[in-house]
Amino acid sequence: MTRARDISNVITDANFGGTLDVSGAFTSQGIDDNANATAITIDSDEDITITKQGTSTTDVRFENSSNSFGGNIKYDHNVGNMIFEVHNGERARFRSDGGICFNGDTDAVNALDDYEEGTATLSFSSSGSTFQYSYQIAFYTKIGRMVNLVCYMQLDGGGNSFSGNTVNITGLPFTSINNAGHQATSACRLRFVNLGTGFTYLMATVGSNTTSVSLLQCGDNVAPGTIGANQLSSSSGQVMFSLSYVSA
Q: What's the total number of domains in the chain?
């Protein structure tokens, strides 16, 4: 009779049906198992669960034979962060409260928490005026709190009714930061816009806590001034600009 402890000496190929239970440590040429509790579970849907006893961290490490440089995927059970380490250093941290920190930074205020691309429908706004458009489009990319915007406004040449009241552009995709020091500004490309005496160019400005763009006519050594709706040509007034502003 062959005893169980000698089975490795007599079996070279084997097929097992049903369940194979091994108590104690298990070692093969490719696997060294020193776990003292269930660490890996594969369910009937072939989903894999890695379990760490206690409430510290679970690590999936990538090492070479000398362990000189390593990669690691770490889940922190205490706070719920997922951490990626490359070349023995932290490179990205996915925070449980949202956002991604980079290169060992753990401060929530520095976490990149949003990325979005889209379009927004902008409009001229002036009391007592109506506008018809050929174009009223803005393309934007939002990275974190920074919004990068490209805008093209063009009247269609009919159906416009203008007053002399100040005209602005409304409909920004995100409200700007509530800070009086925020003044995002860009020069505009114009066509069929009648600037006032002494003014030579138009600026688009996004101030504090707003979804509107102010239009200011400017010139050399003159104070900037607002522009009235009646300074836009009803035939085909055009205002184009690109700017970046900080969202709330």
A: 2
77 half-sphere exposure, CB direction, 13 A CA radius: 10
SS3 of 182, please? coil
- Number of Cβ within a 10 Å radius of residue 68: 8
The predicted-structure confidence for 81-134, as pLDDT tens digits, reads as follows 999 999 889 999 999 999 999 999 999 999 999 999 999 999 999 999 999 999
Instruction: Tell me which residue range forms the domain holding 73.
Output: 25-110
Number of other residues whose CB lies within 10 A of the CB of residue 153: 24
Question: Model-level pTM?
Answer: 0.79
Residue 216 domain-assigned? yes
Q: Do 50 and 136 fall within a single domain?
A: no
Q: Note whether residue 47 is domain-resident.
A: yes
The total of other beta-carbon atoms located within 10 Å of residue 148's CB is 14
Cβ partners under 8 Å of residue 13, min gap 6: none
